[in-house]
């Protein structure tokens, strides 16, 4: 890798990491996701600063092209994340439904109380 | 209202409860016995048992959350209720009977000179003890938060807390809902907003139901999460400029 490409990669991953930290600071990211993305951000930074790590690790587990190892890990990770998000989304849908039901029930009960008061 | 036990304040005792039907009734009755002038608000955090009915039967006001929001979420609901109904102080009290209602008086009395009063478990009284990673975590937290608050705090993760008029609207808006946020982060927010935090010694008692966890693995996770929660609290930006007049409903006429 040429020096300029290396610097470009490092600057890129530093920007990613800073972006995550800034989102955290603005409270746009809750704690449970924050840990996940911070780990990912740091991992990316470490791998760009020391590209030799990836080559060494792919040799250890017997993968010929280091980028293939990276693609494999990235795809597995992204599939995991999207499954997790689907799960969270389903839970949120269920919670909103329950809230809507509760509001409707409260509105009915309130109406009935008001009517009782008007009649009595 | 002249009220001796609450020091002349309109005090709301907030009891967050999640599946506590065995303990919550006795806890509520005990609070009323110790503080006849206070109001008790049980926040039923989406329980699947009869917590709400038991609490209501014991004479408490009950806020039934339709979904489980965690201790922080339950407390925020309590603070919002306190602000809407113009209470002078809110005191958090555990449903499992760990906190002694007789000591609520000490907390309330101390509100004369502070905005938040923590019932601390290590400040001389009581025989509450922890070991290992959990202890280190608590030491570090106590050190950092003492510096921030400008006064000595020894037990920053205590759930036994009294909140005064100045901090109530702040917490009603910003009370953290994440794990450990309701203790660590809430203190950081309060300090940032210029609230005065002090502590008084408190005894912890055995829980009425359920058992505390003590495995070393869990303690290590606790250490990590507490550290992370503290770090997060310190770097986060909070909008602490709370509206002076938060909406207050004077008893809705229904």
Name some characteristics of this structure.
heterodimer; A: 120 residues; mainly alpha; 2 domains; 4 helices; 88% helix; 0% strand; elongated; B: 254 residues; alpha/beta; Spore Coat Polysaccharide Biosynthesis Protein SpsA, Chain A; 7-stranded mixed β-sheet; 7 strands; 39% helix; 14% strand; globular
Quantity of strands of chain A, as a count: 0
Oligomerization: heterodimer
- The structural class of chain A is mainly alpha
- Distance, first to last CA of chain B: 24 Å
Distance between the termini of chain A: 85 Å
Helices and strands of chain A, in order, run as: HHHH
User: What is the domain tally of chain A?
Assistant: 2
- Spatial ordering of strands, largest sheet of chain B: 3-2-1-4-6-5-7
Rg over C-alpha atoms of chain A, rounded to the nearest angstrom: 25 Å
Unreliable stretches covering 5 or more consecutive residues of chain B: none
Helix content range of chain B:
25-40%
Q: How big a fraction of the residues of chain A is strand?
A: under 5%
Helical residues, percent of chain A: over 70%
- The H-and-E topology of chain B, N to C, reads as EHEHEHEHEHEHHEH
Please write the CATH class name of chain B: Alpha Beta
What does this protein look like?
The complex is a heterodimer of chains A (120) and B (254). In chain A, α1 runs antiparallel to α2 and α2 packs across α3. The termini of chain A are far apart. Chain A has 120 residues and is mainly alpha-helical. The longest helix of chain A has 54 residues. Chain A is built from four helices and no strands. Chain B has eight helices and seven strands, in the order βαβαβαβαβαβααβα. Chain B has 254 residues and is α/β, with parallel strands linked by helices. Chain B has a seven-stranded mixed beta sheet with strand order 3-2-1-4-6-5-7, with helices on both faces. The model of chain B has no long low-confidence stretch (mean pLDDT 84). The longest helix of chain B is centred in the last third of the chain and has 20 residues. Helices cover 39% and strands 14% of the residues of chain B. At the A-B interface, α1, α2 and α4 of A face α8 of B. Chain B: Keywords: Transferase. Chain B: Belongs to the glycosyltransferase 2 family. Chain B: This is Glycosyltransferase involved in cell wall biosynthesis. Chain B: It comes from Kutzneria kofuensis.
